[in-house]
Amino acid sequence: MALRTYSFDELQVGMRETLLRTVMASTVNAFAEVSGDVNPVHLSDDYAASTRFGQRIAHGMFTASLISAVIGTRLPGPGAVYLSQTLRFLAPVKIGDVVAAVVEVAELVEKGRRVRLECQCLVDGKPVLEGEAWVMAPPSGKPKGAPQPATATA
């Protein structure tokens, strides 16, 4: 995936980026190992079958991490600094679901290069998570090590 960084001056209200991810059992297992959240509703088919979900579900914070991926790689991209995030979990995400994490610029505050982002995750077009993030966008002049636009050569 090619990374793109938008400086504060390049951002506009209404800009939007989306990341698609299929939730795999191996991903849920790996997230449990990394996070330490080994709740059996995420890891045990037998246990999860006895819950109101009827099957294993992904960690809510895994779904939320897809928003972080959009912010850190696409909008604003590398160099963005997370300041806060609100989350509302609306529906479970199951193994095999394709999650669309959507981030849209909602407000730009010049002081401190603050950006308010509306965030949501969708499965089959239905919201499963929504929230709002505040980030500090990179300044003009890309951060050291950030990807630069490709230039044509003759």
TrEMBL record:
<dbReference type="GO" id="GO:0006633">
    <property type="term" value="P:fatty acid biosynthetic process"/>
</dbReference>
<feature type="domain" description="MaoC-like">
    <location>
        <begin position="21"/>
        <end position="113"/>
    </location>
</feature>
<dbReference type="InterPro" id="IPR003965">
    <property type="entry name" value="Fatty_acid_synthase"/>
</dbReference>
<dbReference type="Pfam" id="PF01575">
    <property type="entry name" value="MaoC_dehydratas"/>
</dbReference>
<dbReference type="InterPro" id="IPR050965">
    <property type="entry name" value="UPF0336/Enoyl-CoA_hydratase"/>
</dbReference>
<keyword id="KW-0456">Lyase</keyword>
<dbReference type="GO" id="GO:0004312">
    <property type="term" value="F:fatty acid synthase activity"/>
</dbReference>
<dbReference type="GO" id="GO:0005835">
    <property type="term" value="C:fatty acid synthase complex"/>
</dbReference>
<dbReference type="GO" id="GO:0019171">
    <property type="term" value="F:(3R)-hydroxyacyl-[acyl-carrier-protein] dehydratase activity"/>
</dbReference>
<dbReference type="InterPro" id="IPR029069">
    <property type="entry name" value="HotDog_dom_sf"/>
</dbReference>
<protein>
    <submittedName>
        <fullName>Acyl dehydratase</fullName>
    </submittedName>
</protein>
<dbReference type="InterPro" id="IPR002539">
    <property type="entry name" value="MaoC-like_dom"/>
</dbReference>
